[in-house]
Amino acid sequence: MGKPANPQKYAVINAPSRIDGTGAFAAEPIPPGRKIGEIRGEAISVQEARERVKNVDRIMMVEISDRKAIDASRSLDPLRFTNHCCRPNAVLRIRQGRVEIHSMRQIEEGDEITCDYGETHHEGGMTCHCGVPGCVGKL
């Protein structure tokens, strides 16, 4: 059995972000409504995920159901660095247990790919740095 297929459909690179830390940036134009790629990681229970995120500021954890989560902390997928934005250009979707990121509108080469995280373990206690008009200000 060989290596799993590359889940990235469009070229994405990681670079310093004006939003926070490292970001995921389009390395080529991405049309609207397209799957950009996936974020893979260790499948764990939601209970284990909630234990792992305690007292940790930077996490890469996605709950995919009431019982399962993906810990992408050690993933090599560039989309794991997708930052939150209150006016995102992409959306995170859970499909058949996979964490996928899809473009919501045209994303140009060099644009940072962003998603709205929705509810997080920070429960409004972390400042949002997206800087867009109408920013909610918290995660």
Automatic annotation (TrEMBL):
<dbReference type="Pfam" id="PF00856">
    <property type="entry name" value="SET"/>
</dbReference>
<dbReference type="GO" id="GO:0008168">
    <property type="term" value="F:methyltransferase activity"/>
</dbReference>
<dbReference type="InterPro" id="IPR050777">
    <property type="entry name" value="SET2_Histone-Lys_MeTrsfase"/>
</dbReference>
<dbReference type="GO" id="GO:0032259">
    <property type="term" value="P:methylation"/>
</dbReference>
<keyword id="KW-0158">Chromosome</keyword>
<keyword id="KW-0489">Methyltransferase</keyword>
<keyword id="KW-0808">Transferase</keyword>
<dbReference type="InterPro" id="IPR046341">
    <property type="entry name" value="SET_dom_sf"/>
</dbReference>
<dbReference type="InterPro" id="IPR001214">
    <property type="entry name" value="SET_dom"/>
</dbReference>
<protein>
    <submittedName>
        <fullName>SET domain-containing protein</fullName>
    </submittedName>
</protein>
<feature type="domain" description="SET">
    <location>
        <begin position="8"/>
        <end position="118"/>
    </location>
</feature>
<keyword id="KW-0949">S-adenosyl-L-methionine</keyword>
<dbReference type="GO" id="GO:0005694">
    <property type="term" value="C:chromosome"/>
</dbReference>
